[in-house]
C-alpha cells in the first residue's frame, strides 16, 4: 500500500474502477441522442452508411467510389453498431471512438498501476479529463481507435518483457501481432510505425541491441504481410490505379507535401492537451532547475531522467510519437492521440508525491478557486436556459441532473477528500463539469447548425423520390459529403458538376443545390430565373445554400 491511501481490497478497487469507466462512457456519449453528425465524423458516417446499406466491404466507399485514405476497421465497427436500428446514427458512429477511449483509460491504469496504485489512478483520471481527449472520445474519431490498438501493442510488448511465467509470456506475445494487425486495419502503415518506434526506441535506450535486431525483423515481417495483403486486395478491387491512390493517400501524401501547419504546431497542441494538469509539473521542473544550478546541465539532466524502466518507456513513447508526427507534412491535433497515455503517466509521475509534500501550497486557495468555477458553470447553465431557450435541444431534467451531479461532487470533495489530495480532485471535478456541460448544452446547437440536415430534408421534401439531385460548385469531398450523408438518395446517384457550362447538360426535372454566392453566375450564364424555382434555403456549416427545382422542358 502506498502511504496515506485508504485501505481497500483488490475486489473493491476493481468495482470502483469499473464504476468510473461506466460514468465516463455515459459522460462521453450522453449528448449523442440530442445532436447531429457533423464535422470530420461526417465522412466516417457516410462510409458506414454505405456499408450498412450495401454490406461490409474490404475497401471503404464514399459516394459510391473507393475511398483510399483509410482501411475499413472503424467503419466495420460503426456498421455493426448501426445494425440494430438498420441505419447510421450519431451514437453508432461515436461508439467505436468512445469505447476505444474507455479502453485507453483502462490500459493507462494498468500500466500506471505497475508503478503504484496511486499512479494508476492519477494517470487514468488525467487521461480521462484531458479536454482534447474528452471531446474526441465523444465524436467519431478514427485516431482514437488507432491510439487504443497502438497502446495495446506497446503494453503487450512491455508485459511480455516483464512476465515471469511462460503462460503469460505466450499470452502477451500472441497479443502483439493481433493488435499490430488491428492498428494497421485502422489507419494503414502508421499503425505499425508508431508502436515500432516506441518499443524500438525503448530497447535502444536500454542498450539491448540484440533485442532491437530481433524486434526489427519481426516488425518488417508484419509490415510486409499487412501491406502486401492490403495492396493485393486493392489491386483485385480497383486495379493498379487504385493501388497508386492507396499508396499516395496512406504514405506519400502524408510525408512529401507542403506542411499545413508550422513545425511548432504540436508544441502548442500539447499545452491544450494537458490543460490544468500541467500545473503539477512544477515540482519536477523545480528539481530539474535545482539540479542544474548545483551540478551543471549534463548532471542535472541525468538526475532528472526517470529511474524506473516504465518511465523511460513512456518518455521514449511520448518523444518518438511526437517526432514522427512533427516530421509528417500533414498535421492535425487529433493525430497526437496515440501519445496521450504516455503523457498521462508522465504527468502522474509529477503529481504522485504531491499529497505527501508541500509543493502545492495553500489548499484553501484551490478550494475557493474551484468553488467559484463550479458556481460559474451552474450560473452559465441557468443563464443559457433562460436567455437562449431556442438553442436548448436536450430535456431540461438532463441539465438539472448535470447541475446536481456537479454540486454533489463539490460537497463530496470538501467533506471526504483529505487536504493533500484535494487539489487533484478539484481539477478533476472542474474539468469533468466543464467538458460534460459543453457536451450537453453547446454541442447539440453547434452540430445542428453545421450538419446541414435540416436544409437537406427541406430541399428533398419538395421533389419526388425519383428526381435526380445535382450539386453545383460544391466539392464532393467537402460539403458534398455532408449533403450525401443526410440525403434520402443513394450517395452514388448524386451528381456533382462544376462551372456554368455544365449546367447546360443537367437532367430535367432535377433538384439543383448551389451556394448563394453562385447566384449571379447562374443568372448571367446558363440558368436564368425563369428556368428554376427556389424551394428551400439553409446552411451547411457557415455556407448559405439554396435548392432549386428545374422542371422538365425548361
Automatic annotation (TrEMBL):
It comes from the Bacteria. GO terms for cellular component: plasma membrane. The chain crosses the membrane at residues 74-107, 119-135, 141-159, 171-192, 212-234, 263-285, 310-328, 371-388, 393-413, 425-446. It holds the Pfam family PMT_2. Residues 69-225 form the Glycosyltransferase RgtA/B/C/D-like domain. It is a multi-pass membrane protein. GO terms for molecular function: pentosyltransferase activity. GO terms for biological process: lipopolysaccharide biosynthetic process; response to iron(III) ion. It is found in: Cell membrane. This is Glycosyltransferase RgtA/B/C/D-like domain-containing protein. Keywords: Cell membrane, Glycosyltransferase, Membrane, Transferase, Transmembrane, Transmembrane helix. Its main location: membrane.
